[in-house]
Structure formats: structure tokens, C-alpha cells
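Just curious: can you write whichever protein you like plus the matching C-alpha cells?

***
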Amino acid sequence: MKSPSLRGVGRGACVGALLVLAVVDVLSSGSAGFGALRPALVLAVGLAAVLWPPARRPAWLTPPLRTAVPALASLLYTATAYATHRTGVFGPGETAVLLCLLFIAVRHCPPRWAVVCGLLDAAALLTTPARYYGSLTEKEAPGYLLVGALLAALVASLAAYLRSLDYRRTVAVADTRREERLAIAADLHDFVAHHVTGILVQTQMARMMAATQPQALDPVLAGIEGAATEALASMRRTVGVLRDATGGAADHRPVGDLAGIAELTSRFANPGRSHGQNPDQSPGQGPGQTVTLRSDVPADLPHEVQAAAFRVVQEALTNVRRHAADATRVDVRLRLDGGRLVVSVADDGRGGTQLPDAAHGGGFGLVGLKERVTALGGELAAGPREGHGWEIRAVFPPP
């Protein structure tokens, strides 16, 4: 992945190249005695549409408007030059601007507008020789027409391919979110079943004690009340994220908890072991790796929060296996900060891995993880550490 600085340099180079080509167009038209006003106006409209910064672009300047207006200005210039038999010029600056607008139209305009605006930009590009030669069939005009058609087809094909990639990614992200919501629904079943089972057992106990020990019923009834309250709280915090989930069967996934995190880290460092060590301090030594778990959080956190924390650690350790197999140390930390649960997983890898490309995953694990964390009102951040390595950090609000 390119760094932001490299992307900025590439963007600046493209802007500079367009401006230089535009200046060449204006200067060449003026020196040839054709007048620089009309080509300068056409280029100004086109450059404004292409180079207007996205952060400062007004809402009304939509992609169809950005791509259609400069094309119409270029076509109007061509039409007036042809109708009045006054020779006009065209140069590399206008050609580059129209190709950029064609790319924007095909990739970013709504489907119907993409066709209309793309055809307008292509027509403006292909008819520019008519200003100079007076016709598209005289002298060298057919040669320019052929080159322009090839360039337009190449740019439109590239934009259409990138648009298809954007669409596929959007669909993949939507599917990942839907699957994660279905998994949350399965977890909700476990949360409620756990509490309802406790209520059932304590209710049976209360019925038996009502006849023999009525004076000891109060603690049992208090336990029933607490279990019911916790069940309702779990449902309230979780069911809101299922609004957009569609029907269909989902694979049942076991719910992780704080104890499961200890076992998870132990198995990561020692794949042959099936049980973890003390969750308060469990370093493990794998092949060239040291995994340390530090936890100072209570075991009575809400079940959905424990499950989300388990998923954070699980996804982070999976990413270490996939993308940072050269890591020598992995630190897993769970702590409370002002009532908030903070879960962090950091490694010192440099990105080396021996896994084949097919085993690296589709890149949507963090998408589903963020859906789960934000559903509980939390925040998820992932990024490089200072120096080298990677860190995933989740913060959950107080229950």
C-alpha cells in the first residue's frame, strides 16, 4: 500500500503536468495568431472541474455536472469555429483534461449519467480536430481521430474496470457486515439462554423452598431479579445492530469470554496445548515468538463485551499469523481506563510472512470486527506502531 506522502507526490505531479500542458495550449494558440481567449476559457472550466479539491468542493458540484459542463464548453468552441469558418486550435492540455473528465464520468457518475457524460466527453475529444482542419475527413484529421478514439477507449476501459472493483468491494463489505450481524444474533441467543437457564433453575429452587424454608427465599429471588435484569440489558445492547440483517441460516459460533482469551493466546504460542495459563500473566513461547497476556479486568463484565474482546484478540492474532510471521513478540493487554475496557494487541513484526497469498484472507476481517465493536458503542483503531510493528486497539464504553 502506498503511503500518504507518496500519494500526495503523485497527485501533485499530475496537477503540475495538467497545468503545464494547459499553458502550452494557451501560448501556442496566441503565438499562432488564433487568439487565446476561447481556448483559455475552455481550459479554465475543465481544469476547475478536474482539480477542485474534494474537501472544498460544494455539494452542487456533482460528478455529472463536473464532467458535462466542460465537455459542452469544448463542443461549443468546436461548433462556433466550424460554423463561422474561423480556425481554432486544440492541444495536449485540452486533450488531457477531456480524458481526465472521461475517466471521472465512467468511474464516479451514477450509471445512467456515466453513459451520457462519458459520451459527451468522448465526443468533445474526438471533434476537436474539426476546429483546425474544418472537417474530420480532411488531411490529417482522420489520424488524430483514430489516436483520440484509442485513448478514449483505453481510459474508459480502465475507469470501468476500477468501477467494477469498487462495486465488488462494496458488495463484499456489505456481506461481511451482514455475516457479522448474524454472528451477533447467534451470540445474543447464547447470552439470553445463559440468563434464562439461570432464572429457570432458581425459580425451581424457589418453589421447593416456598414450602420448607420461606425465610430463605429473599436471596434466591434477588438472584432471579439480577439474572433477568442482565438478560434484558444484553438484549437491549445487542439487538439494535440486527435491524438490517436479512433472513437466512448462520453458522453457530461459540461465544468467547475472558477465560477464552487466555486459552486463545496460549494456543497461539503453543499450538499443541489445549488450555491456557493464568489469565493475569500468561507468557507463551512459540517458534521464535513470545506471547504475553496481561489482564487486570474483572470477570463479571457483560457477556457481549467479553465476546467482542475475544473477537478483537482473535482477529489480531490471526493477522499476526497472516501478515507478520516474523514477529518475535506479541503483547495482549486488557485493562480498565475510567470504567472503559481497553483491549490492545501489539506485535513487533516487519511484515514478513511465509504464508501463500491465498492464505492471507480477503481483507475484510477488520470490517466485521469494527461492526461488532461500534455496535456496542466502542471504538476500534488499527495501524502501525512507532518504529515497526502493528497494533489493534479497541475501547468499550462502561456497561
